[in-house]
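Why Simple sugar transport system permease protein? Reviewers of the renewal asked for a concrete example.
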Amino acid sequence: MDLSSINPILLLASLMVAATPIMLAAIGELVVERSGVLNLGVEGMMITGAVCGFIVSVSTGSPWLGFIGAAIGGAMLASLFGFLTQYLLSNQVATGLALTLFGLGLSALMGQGYIGIKSPSFPDWHIPLLGDIPVIGPIVFQHDPMVYVGLLIVLAVWAFLKFSRAGLILRAVGENHDAAHALGYKVKRVRMLAIMFGGACAGLGGAYLSLVRVPQWTEGMTAGAGWIALAIVVFASWKPGRLLLGAYLFGGVTVLQLNLQAAGMAIPVEYLSMSPYLATIVVLVIMRAGRAPGSLGRIFHASR
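Here is what the prediction returned.
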């Protein structure tokens, strides 16, 4: 085993890239859960976003349009979940699981004609001056634009929930939907908007896999990323700052195990491949999650 082949600067830079799809999906799910809705269909929305983004990007030649198409695809699938759970009052857990299975099947069908095709390139940004700073520059300031878009979304969600009136209303709906309804707030409308935002973010996370990290379409390419995003939301205690740390933790373990495989570490590859998921489980067991939103997973009956 040759550990000298592992470049620590490249390792840390790769960490940010590996964390981005998880971070995008998790921040969307955080908003959904803060509104009092539990959507377990993140995996299905991510894989749908991955195939929609890939198809749009290949058809138009523009990765940016691909990401827009992915966000729309994820939001549309999420709106189906929202309609079933908020208007037809179906069970949120069962509907979310069904959404994942539906998304996996739909994406496999849509992507049949795109296997083996390479998506248009999405070049990295070399930010002038900042990108030339020793050590810090290559780690932080030489990534593709979606890395920074993801960080901006996390920052925007934090500011929205903490400082805006709309964020206060969303949190009120998530804590006690009956009280929010009594005050005249449109509970179903707030939750539908949150659900669609969560779907759009999950779609962006999926598209990041198919347009940047791979970049090609492979059936089932999310490989459980949606479930990790769900776990990170709980680990983060529904707080954007801790969510960012959780995403980077998972991304770091993912990149580290790939580098250890390349260095020829004398551990079976299967064990190394399991390590990011095992690390997530261990952290969830050790870390005590904060209090969940009071109305999380509860069905709202407008007639009350």
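The chain has a mean pLDDT of 88. This is the kind of structural detail the renewal will allow us to pursue systematically.
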